[in-house]
């Protein structure tokens, strides 16, 4: 049985940075996770209803909740709002994912918060942004990446666009871009002494991630979906089924890697369709498919392991943490029996770390209120009033 995880003293490059995270789903907690992994002290403000219904037994598996403490607060209660304002006064950053105008209406918009702390970096994350004709509309990752041009570029030729995991909009173009924006604003605030609002929109972030493909399109390098070098069009950049139903990924783009691929498959370059003849890509794909179906996934993985052929097994979520390369680099960690990705990137002098295991809503309410200088009687009064939980 694994040893229980114990909180560690932050050593990452953001050690000493205090962040207030207003509870949300998906990209907001992911932003909090990566900031915490880099050393930031995160206090998450959860709803009192969530705190009262919290199940501590389920907390360990909620990887996105790692690295922070939680206080249960009713932000619609005047005393609860006052608690948030106290937290803001001592914070460097606040992050929220409400629709435009909601935070202002509830009394904790940028103007209200920065009136109490002019150094505050106020990070906002929405799908459509704080302005524009769609800013007040609902949406999800699939909608934002559709409007940014990303979804239309994903999928096989002749097939509908393939919705990817919500990594592209929610987490890459959203949570991670917000974390980047916050660190930029913190650097500027260190020089100017003034905070600012960071308006992060997932449609903007996804568009930014698509920059290489907009460039490729405009220089004539990118055509119809599923016919290009990197979108399953090229047979030497695709996935192939193996004898056991597993899959391998092939990315042998450069000539030297392609030569290794052919050698590993025991194929003569002169006996297979020319890879530069796009009209014969389907014929070449059929040759590769037949070869890969002759062995199991793991047999091919072992066979290609010593070769620079850019061939890798397609692993499942349970397999990736125990792959030898990932184990050697500690790419995944075990926290209280839960496999999860390790902090990244890696720093030479100030390494990131998981500061504490996942929290549940309201777990640290008394502890945080005590740090704000409130007496046990004050805390008891807030609880009786329903302002905290």
Structure write-up:
This protein has 389 residues and is of the alpha/beta class. The two termini are 33 Å apart. It has a six-stranded parallel β-sheet, sandwiched between helices. Strands 7-8-9 form a three-stranded antiparallel β-sheet, covered by helices on one side. The model has no long low-confidence stretch (mean pLDDT 96). The radius of gyration is 25 Å and the shape is elongated. Helix 6 crosses helix 8 (202-209). The chain has helices at residues 27-37, 48-53, 78-89, 102-106, 110-114, 141-147, 167-192, 202-209, 211-218, 255-264, 281-292, 297-304, 324-329, 365-371, 376-385; strands at residues 18-22, 41-46, 68-72, 93-96, 121-126, 197-201, 237-241, 247-251, 311-313, 332-335, 338-341.
- Provide a count of the helices: 15
Mean pLDDT: 96
- Given as residue ranges, the uncertain stretches (5+ residues, pLDDT < 50) are none
Please estimate the helix content.
Answer: 25-40%
C-alpha-based Rg, rounded? 25 Å
Strand order of the largest sheet: 3-2-1-4-5-6
N-to-C SSE string, H for helix and E for strand: EHEHEHEHHEHHEHHEEHHHEHEEHH
- The secondary-structure class comes to alpha/beta
